[in-house]
Known about the structure:
two-stranded antiparallel ribbon; single chain; six-stranded parallel β-sheet; 6 helices; alpha/beta
Amino acid sequence: MLINGKPILGRVIFAHGAGAGMHSVFMEKMAFKLAEVGLEVVRFDFPYMQKMSLEGKRRPPDRMPTLLAFFQQVIEEYSDGLPLYLAGKSMGGRVASMLMADSKVSACFVFGYPFHPQGKPDKLRTEHLAEIDKPLHIFQGTRDKMGSLSEVTEYNLTSSVVLHWMSDGDHDLKPRKSSGFTQEDHQNQIVSIIEGCVN
């Protein structure tokens, strides 16, 4: 099987963040770039986001058990022997990282992990990250308000968690103009790293 004229390297099931669904600019750009290197990308909306799209009203995310159960259903639907990877933007990445241990996936890729809620650095979401035994690649902006470089280096994370720091990036991995980088620079760097991981 080919994708964009290249052999399929595997399938990435890609979950969205809390505030924007699978059609956000970030999700679409990353999905396109991953497909360019030979990865089939599956995107989906969690139930609360589906309701938001239908009703046109903002809703808070579903509780974690609902998010986990729905994501697990998607994983099972697409488990057909093709090498499988999980990915997620922020909240979606957190859910993916919680599922990877008990799923038949080779690795997980997270774009902006929400190590803690914004403004609440003491409320860590890292307990399971001390026990993961499969490769978890986290692509994090150095000035992410949900886990900056200075904060995350103090956390107790297993050696299976690999941190890739995006210079001057915020939670969307977007740097300031003065940095000399662009969000697309960071996205291209991320995809290059992922391509090396799956080859």
